[in-house]
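Our consortium's second objective concerns turning raw sequence data into structural hypotheses that experimental partners can test. To show how far this objective has progressed, the report includes one record in full. It was chosen at random from the queue rather than selected for favorable results. The single chain below, 751 residues long, was entered without modification.
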Amino acid sequence: MARKIRFRIPKRMLAIAAGLVALCLALVIRWADPGALQLARHLVFDQYQVWQPRAYHPAPVRVISIDEESLNRLGQWPWPRHYIAHMLDNLTGLGAAAIAFDIIFSEPDRTSPSRILADWSIDASHRKALDAMMVDLPDHDAILAESITHSPTVLGMILQPGVSEPFPFNRRAGFAGHTDVINAIPRYGMATRNLPILEDAATGIANFGYSPERDGIVRRIPLLGQVHDLVLPTISIEALRVAQIATTLIARSASASGEYRFGSTMGLHMLRVGQIEVPMTADSRFWVHYTKPQPEREVPAWQVLLEPEKLQDKIDGQIILIGATAAGLRDLKATPLSADLPGIFVHAQALEQMILGEHLIRPGWANAAEFLGLAFLGLLFTFALPWLGPIWCALIGALFAGSGAIGSWLAYSQWQLLVDPLYSILAATLVYIVVTATQHLLSERERMRVRSTFGRYLSPALVKRMADTGEEPQLGGELRQLTLMFCDIRGFTPISESMTPIQLTQFINKFLTPMTDLVLETHGTIDKYMGDAIMAFWNAPLDEPDHASLAVGATLRMRKRLAELEPVWQQEAEAEGRKLPPVRIGMGINTGECVVGNVGSDQRFDYSCLGDSVNTASRLEGQSKTYGVDLVVGQDSVALAPGYAYLELDLIRVKGKQNAVRIFTVLGGPDIAATPVFQTFKAHHDRMLAAYRAQDWALATQLIAERPAEPDHGIPGGLTGLYAEYSARLTELAMDPPGQDWDGVYEAKSK
């Protein structure tokens, strides 16, 4: 029969394989960079801004806010457009470099005289008279258009998804860009525009570029947008262009322009506006680095209209952004620092960054750095964990992860670079958990295998105790005191001759299984089976202070169990038409120091014990035949396990030994030992032994003949064999006395 070959993969290799699978999965997710992962990364960057917002430095940017006080002074919104025109005139007169509206004028002014008249419910005669009066009154939209014509004004349109017909447009500035940049600019199909009269008069036309992330927070604003192949900058970029009187916007990427920037902008797109370069992401967005609210950034609209003479220092040379901030009017945006920041301030802060050059940048190398950081930490955990263990790897990993987190924070706080440490740390931690869990599961499986293997030799309680306490045998050999037991079936040859090989195997199993159970139940260890024989010991691999008592108790239970099983076996034999000889066992117990541990060769070994005490226990088991009892116990075991109903057998020198040993049999447990019947019987027996050793053969013979009734001990055949041995010995000694120097020691003639 061919031998089945089994390949066993080391636990470390399996743990490494599991770690590599988890790491590859984490790397694939990072490469795909799904929306949830981006959101988690952005939340980290938000927290950085919360911890350290951008420090405010004065820049030539002002917000004209249509606030509550302005509404109280000038009336409800919308104001007549000649108010707006007057505001423009004042701002231009004060020296504004550019004026951008975060307001769209897509419908005619309803406060214009002609529009008001159309809304009145009057009869035809009155309407005709009023029409004649209104014909010479100025239209408010025309007034605003005239003011726009004489002002560096930027108007915006709203770009929306959808489909619409292309529309004519008078370009205010040229646009040049590399193909990869243009293709990445967001495209829209529809636009909500200002009145043509106003749009035609404006110096610059932009789009309102707000682009919240998935969670509604504005972290980046799109600098460019496309509608019908028309590229429109956001109002902050267009206001910057108008303020510099620039004629062209130039968009480029570091790779397409041949400029390989080894630094914070490597691989990023750049938008050149006049003399200012603005970094933008691959989809033309700009990271806004927010400050805390700054009152000096804001000028109320009413002051521009009613007290312009007080604003010369605040307006001259400034880029002006006009928008609503009053409750109910303002367009609120959620930012990392605020849940309700008016949208006009988003563009104001972006403009400040562009002018001051204080850019918040997600560097082109960040993805690669995060990817490599994850790969490094993941590989560290994958390959180091199986060797160093979870504690050392956790400490080393925490060191590297902490360094990465600190490095990310320093990159932000010192150089305004956004590098995410979170995913690399979390994903590497997942790899750590996978490898640790795999090792634990494999170790647990191995532990279960060891439990199963040891469970065949040790009691379940011992195995559980080893698992719970972490106690393990000192494999390789240790010196300790053991109580040893040998058990053998008496007259096994006649028994085996009465059975077929299969029947004999079944019989041996039926004998060994219950006997083994009793050994294990008393915390014993099965050393080996030798055909029909059992070798067991107590007090290893774990300490058992009462090992001798446990061993003696086990043999008494084995005696009782055999008495229960033999009738069953006899009935089975009778049913099968065969005769089964009586099944008797002999047991020997001895206590002494032994070396216990792994014994064998490099190819195969067993957990076993060696020592003179082992040989003595084996010899004592053999002497059970001599004395006609089923159990012989050495004097050292008796000394360690008092209380049982011991009956001394002899002072014997077993074959192959120099020193004599006092041996006993056991009639029962402490309950039998305390009975008057046993006490009387033991006293009479001890008198017989004393007469025997005093060479008073006649008295010893008389005492044997006059012995009282035996206690209820359960020894098969009783003590008849014991006294028959002594009777034969007394007869022999009487005929051939040993001499005066006889020490009463019996020399065993067989093993």
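The partners drew two points from this record. The chain has three domains: 11-52+363-450, 61-356, 455-467+478-747. Residues 1-8, 257-266 have pLDDT under 50 and may be disordered. Both points have been shared with the crystallography group to help prioritize constructs.
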